[in-house]
Specification:
The longest helix has 16 residues. The chain is α/β, with parallel strands linked by helices. The strands form 2 sheets. The chain has a 5-stranded parallel beta sheet with strand order 2-7-1-8-9, with helices on both faces. The chain starts with 8 loop residues before the first strand and ends in a 10-residue tail after the last helix. 39% of the residues lie in helices and 21% in strands.
Length: 201
């Protein structure tokens, strides 16, 4: 009897500044033939260095509304006064090609995805301490003091939802490679679970 080996949908979530993008991209860079990274659509402005279609799809509010009307989004939410959503066709195409799919979403969005896709593998990414998280948020310099305070308060509430996730991975400063390897191990084990259902959207 052949062992199972199905592509999986992996959701990486956690508070702002824990390094969701860095770790997700690191997984892709290490094994590009095995993974597809889902690009999220957002109505917020691009930060310095961000590239449309790579980091996010930066769209207008009107375009985002059109995507909602046409049922093009797996989930969407208002995050810090801007809309964010996951276009679903890219997920369908990647899974059909046999690739594992990695999504990075906020904690609010993760709850929605779990309801829609019970077989999703969920990973909560965090920092070694709250002090480290506050330090990273402050270092961004893309937020006002009020904005940072809001993100810190939100992060504290999000940390309380750790129990909703399958796995927890710590992304310590300077040890991103360890976090990436842990996620790869989770994916490899998940692909070979005897009892699993193919992902359906």
């Amino acid at each position: 009897m052949k062992c199972p080996d199905h592509p999986v949908l992996v959701l990486i979530s956690g508070p702002s500044a824990v390094g969701k993008d860095t770790i997700a991209r690191g997984v892709i860079d290490k094994r590009p033939d095995d993974f597809y990274f889902v690009v999220t659509a957002t109505t917020r402005e691009a930060r310095d260095g961000e590239v449309d279609g790579y980091d996010y799809f930066f769209v207008t509010h009107n375009e985002f509304a059109r995507m909602i009307d046409n049922d093009e989004l797996l989930e969407y939410a208002v995050v810090y006064n801007d809309y964010k959503g996951v276009p679903k066709q890219q997920i369908i195409d990647a899974l059909e090609s046999g690739k594992n799919v990695i999504m990075r979403v906020d904690v609010q969005g993760a709850a929605t995805v779990r309801e829609l896709i019970p077989d999703v593998i969920t990973v909560f990414l965090t920092t070694p301490s709250e002090d480290e998280l506050v330090k990273r948020l402050t270092a961004r310099k893309s937020e006002t003091a009020e904005g940072i305070n809001l993100r810190v308060a939100t992060a504290r509430k999000e940390m309380n939802r750790l129990g909703e996730f399958d796995y927890c991975v710590v992304n310590a400063e300077g040890k991103q490679a360890e976090a990436i390897d842990r996620i790869l191990s989770i994916v490899d084990a998940s692909r070979r679970r005897v009892h699993q259902n193919p992902i359906k959207l």
